[in-house]
Amino acid sequence: MTARPVLSCALAVTALAGCLALTLTTGGTLGNRPPLYGWYAADAVLFALSLLALRRVPQRQVARLVLAGGVLVAAVGLLAPPRTSDDAYRYGWDGKVQATGGSPYARTPEDPALARLRDPGRFPVGDGCAAWDERRTADGACTRINRPAVHTIYPPLAEAWFLAQRPFGDGVRVAQAAGAVLAVATTGGLLAVTGGRRRAALWAWCPGVAVWAVNDAHVDALGALLTVLGLGWAARGRCAAGGAALGAATAVKLLPALALPGALSGVLSRRPRRADLVVPATAAGVFVLSYLPYLAASGAGVLGYLPGYLREEGYQQGHLERFGLLRLLLPDRFAPWAGAAVLAALVWRVLRHGDPARPWRGALTVTGGALLLAAPAYPWYGLLVVALAALDGRWEWLAVPAAGQLLYLAGGSRVQQLAYGTALLVVVVVSVRRAGRWPRPVGAQMTEV
Questions:
Q1: DSSP secondary-structure letter at 14?
Q2: Is residue 199 within 8 Å of 149, Cβ to Cβ?
Q3: What residues form the membrane-spanning segments (predicted)?
Q4: CB-based contacts of 29: which residues, under 8 Å, 6+ apart?
Q5: Nearest Cα to 205, choosing from 23, 364, 368, 43?
Q6: Rounded distance, CA 375 to CA 369, Å?
Q7: DSSP annotation of 30
Q8: Helix (H, G, I), strand (E, B), or coil: what is residue 128?
Q9: Are 321 and 313 in contact (CB under 8 A)?
Q10: From CA 226, how far away is CA 245, in angstroms rounded?
């Protein structure tokens, strides 16, 4: 009788993959957004149905089914060129510049000194330069590289990842294939850390993973994988390995630094020990060491476009466009300070009351809370939240990257507040109901996983 639940779940995941395939091949692009709303909604419904079907599958068959479905969902992301982001074109360019001995922190893509590196994939000729992912450089060339007039923004281990792909080519297909490898590897890491639990499917089958990590090939997937491994090692007392992985994740994309308090869960609830310094010290050491080769080559230029990006994206005073929920309650000038205060309170709570056996729970609270506060417009920032939700099994936090996706497509202050306000409501309501309906004894919390 166990074959029927497995078959039903397999059919549901196959339907999800088929819908994702249509989404990515016929469902619109960033230049033609209206079709994406319907397709993304259909993907979300089939994702939910697949998760419900998985609940009936016997535990002994869960891991294989989750992994197989994860491979299928990731493979679907390879069916088309990037549909909603052009970041992958910059990735390959940065790798190409490094392979020729240059530094992407030192010269911009439109720099005449790098004209010899231009290729038709990133600098198309004769197509009118009218596609959604094309723009003109200062010298009139057409390029698919976004912000061609500025230096790269990516931290050093992201740059090392781009260089590592160079032997396989520097086109977007290579970046997508690398994203698929990362997506499946993260599924494997989640299954290992959770002991093959069903909750790993929250990442493995998530439509956002196929879109953001594979099709759009965002390097955030590498940060998510390293964070999963780091928290898994920290939970098992391998503090040095855990700290190193978290430091490396932060050197890929700065956002995983928010997961570090999770690895220190409960540290303020007892007497301090020398071992408590291992995770933060190792993380800081790996982060600093990763910058040294690029610092030697580029000096202060290793900051890249980060300051300009923060200003452009509305995170600085005088140009504030983020912190939408806080700006409903406070004047703009107070919103960033209030956000910092709330985030500090979340960090303190994790350090004081967090469960060291479940460091991902504190990491999810801080990371998801930070995204709710800042309300970013890029949904792939939520890949880290998806991975942490899969570690902890709290599916309600998937509302946070969903809010980012809606804001990315629709834009506007009102949409920002509505989307992230709805996400906050989902997180609060489900969390309260979960705590009331399924109380967990302390012993069970400490021994699971």
A1: H
A2: no
A3: 37-55, 62-80, 174-193, 277-297, 334-351, 363-391, 418-436
A4: 36, 83, 84, 132
A5: 43
A6: 10
A7: T
A8: coil
A9: yes
A10: 5
Tens digits of residue pLDDT in 411-424? 999 999 999 999 99
pLDDT the model gives residue 317: 64
Single out the residue of 107, 180, 182 nearest to residue 150, CA to CA.
Answer: 107
**Which of 192, 196, 199 shows the shortest CA–CA distance to 397?**
199
Helix (H) or strand (E) holding 66: helix 59-76
Rounded Cα gap, residues 70 and 75, in angstroms: 8
Q: Are 153 and 305 in contact (CB under 8 A)?
A: yes
* DSSP secondary structure letter of residue 41: H
Sequence-distant (≥ 6) Cβ neighbours of residue 407 within 8 angstroms: 375, 376, 377, 379, 415, 416, 419, 420
CA angle 21, 22, 24 (to 5 degrees): 65
CA distance readout (Å), 237 to 243, 262, 353: 11, 13, 18
Q: Is the pTM value of this prediction over 0.85?
A: yes
Share of the chain above pLDDT 90, in %: 86
Q: Which residues contact 168 (CB under 8 A, 6 or more apart)?
A: 174, 177
Would you list the DSSP string of 356-415?
Answer: TT-HHHHHHHHHHHHHHHH--S-GGGGHHHHHHHHHHT-GGGGHHHHHHHHHHHH-SHHH
Asked if 361 and 262 count as a contact pair (C-beta separation under 8 A), the reply is yes
Lowest average pLDDT, out of 275-279, 319-323, 440-444, goes to: 440-444
The answer to whether the CB of 129 falls within 8 A of the CB of 136 is: yes
HSE-up (13 A, CA, CB side) for residue 290: 25
Element (H, E) at 135: strand 135-136
Mean pLDDT along residues 151-155: 92
Q: What b/e readout covers 107-134, taking b as 16+ CB neighbours within 10 angstroms?
A: bbbbbeebeebbeebbbbeeeebeeebb
Place of tokens 């040294």: 292
CB-CB neighbours of 27 under 10 Å = 21
